[in-house]
Amino acid sequence: MSAVERQLRVGLIGAGPWAHAVHAPGLTDHPGTLLTSVWARRPEAAKELADQHGVAVAASPEALLDEVDAVAFAVPPSVQAQYAVQAARAGKHLLLEKPLGGDVDQARRVAEAVGEAGVAALVMLTLHFAPETTDWLAELDRLGGWAGGSAKWLSGALLGGPYSGSSWRHEQGALADIGPHALDLLDSALGRITEVIGAHHGGSDLWHLLLAHETGATSTASLSLRLPMRPTVVEFTVYGEHGHRALGGKNTPAQECYTALLDDFVAMVHSGVREHACDAQRGLHLQLVLDQALRKIGQS
């Protein structure tokens, strides 16, 4: 079998800035994947992206599913949940964005569909796939004994730039967009988050969360997409009996993180392995934590 025949045929649903910057070029360049078609709710956007990569425009999501082994999503959470369930039931492997859905019920339907179909699924938790994060988490696991930690992600992404026109990000804000990234790393570093002890949502879309972990550790997270930060502040810290360990900045470009995700995804598909630190069940867990935070401030 040739290298091309072993490639996974992947269809892309979505044609916004993130699809242009990360998904489409990543799928085109990776040796284990072949971008075959694009579908978007705006046909003109789908055509522009498809033409850039020399692939077809699918007439409908159903037509796209007929031609691929896997589907990558770059659409708002509620749209992803609808088509991800459909794709999983059709036996297609999934490259998912965070959060899984617009609410817990949608996320649960996605995770259940993935489990029932037995397909591979990964959630694009970008920082998790950066090599510096992998090294940081490995050291924390080796040492153990961490009592607490903090995450800080402060950005002006919704004040201007390529994602400032995103309706769902404006509606759901920092908690839904960057919250999964922050919660994922705190969860990975300190143990599974079991409770949102407290939450505050103030001006400038500024969230403060106090979290409990199954290990007995506690952590805090401060999140905003509407603060005039140049550059964006991204900091993670843990502390305990071995002192203080920090992970700072977004050092590895998103495109390289996506390549690392695709490495794992292709291996999962070909090996039959379905469990991963960033699988659909992980996505559901993070959505449940987001929901707890919303409940704390009376928004869920």
TrEMBL record:
Entry keyword set: Oxidoreductase
Domain Gfo/Idh/MocA-like oxidoreductase N-terminal: 8-123
GO MF: nucleotide binding; oxidoreductase activity
Domain of life of the source: Bacteria
Residue span(s) of domain GFO/IDH/MocA-like oxidoreductase: 166-243
Name of the protein in question: Putative dehydrogenase
Source species: Kutzneria albida DSM 43870
Annotated InterPro entries: Gfo/Idh/MocA-like_OxRdtase_N, Gfo/Idh/MocA_oxidrdct_glycsds, GFO_IDH_MocA-like_dom, NAD(P)-bd_dom_sf
